[in-house]
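Section handout, structural biology tutorial.
Before the tutorial, make sure you can parse a SMILES string by hand: atoms, branches in parentheses, ring closures as digits. In the record below the ligand is pyridoxal-5'-phosphate, and the chain has 436 residues. In the tutorial you will relate the predicted structure tokens back to the input. Do not try to memorize them.
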Amino acid sequence: MSNHPHINSKEPHIGYFSSRLREADPKIDAAICSELSRQRNQIELIASENLVSRAVLDAQGSILTNKTVEGYPGHRYYGGAEYVDEIERIAIARAKLLFKCKFANVQPHSGSQANQAVYLSLLQPGQRILGMALDAGGHLSHGAKANLSGRWFDIAHYGVSRENGRIDYDFAAEQAFEHRPELIIAGGSAYSRKLDFSKFRKIADSIGARLMVDMAHFAGLVAAGEYPDPLPYADVVTTTTYKSLRGVRGGLVLTNDSDIAAKVDNAVFPGLQGTPLLHSLAAKAVCLGEALKPEFSTYCRQVVANARALSETLVNQGLDVVSGGTDTALMLVDLRSKGLTGNIVAESLERACLTCNKNKIPFDTESARITSGLRLSSAVGTTRGFGIAEFDKIGQIIGAVIDGLARDPDQNNEMEEWARSAVLDICERFPIYPDL
Ligand SMILES: *Cc1c(COP(=O)(O)O)cnc(C)c1O
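Predicted structure of the complex:
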């Protein structure tokens, strides 16, 4: 019982610590509830998403959000860090074990910030980066004009071959020789095939450049042994934790080089960030723990098998898939043979409760707002429990919606309605978050 003079009624005080969101802020609560039902009743095909476990959600929504610390475990600027030190040490140990590397920084707030930390560690403004072109599947943070990376560094690009949609390593080597970058980046957001890290290493060595691999999309597959391991080849590896790794929003930087590790630690704090998001950091530790379990390998194997099934069904329906298929969770559909653009198709699919994104395809002549492609992924559906049969069905639904649009791009209501009920049927068989 408190005798503090400034607390004259215990009611408001207790309400502050006990009222749930639905009482305290019904507007925001209602929007979150609507988002939950959207997630329940739509099939999510966006490649940069996944569904976290209830345990990860618990950690993310925990009181760790209250704590401020700066620095690293054992060397914090603020007191009271005993338990968050323990959490961060566990997260680091799990990241190192999972990716078989010597050093891990688990503090980056996002994948972009993990990349920035590497740039701050290894480059001076004005130095040169060689990265994958955006329309070949690269990422904004690898040197897009509008991004800090493109404004502070001089950017050269490599891309994919027109013939087979796969990385043109000869061209990458020529670009490296001509532009002499300090840093080469392998990895992207819309490239569906395995990268040949030894080829990137050779190119980097031929000009004395460093090699960074951004495995944001395929980190989970690397952890599960379903994708080549970049760590033996790269000087430094970055990733997000919320795509195929199936955890919370955030980033990691991994390396086996002690000099780079020390520079990255300094770059993350105090170079770029203040306090890490400790609730996210705890949730990262939980998801890394999940990824160390055998069930996660089973999940990743199914992700790849499901993506392959979806891509085969799409090809059988007369659609073109860039590079003819996929080795990962994601694929790029080329819509030009149907005379359609990505924006029109993505909107029609969304009305049919299939969420995905329009995406540029290699050598796209359409703008980023229109595009000639769609990017699809099996990662979220596989988390729900979808197997080959469900992804085959999803491929048939997508094919039917696209054929409806090809017949009449202005009027696809009937097909969308049929698709919506087929989608709901699948969703109801695979419920998510039953106690929310
Ligand atoms: C998603 C992604 C990122 C960035 O992630 P944010 O967390 O959104 O900053 C970085 N690199 C690649 C290749 C990505 O796909």
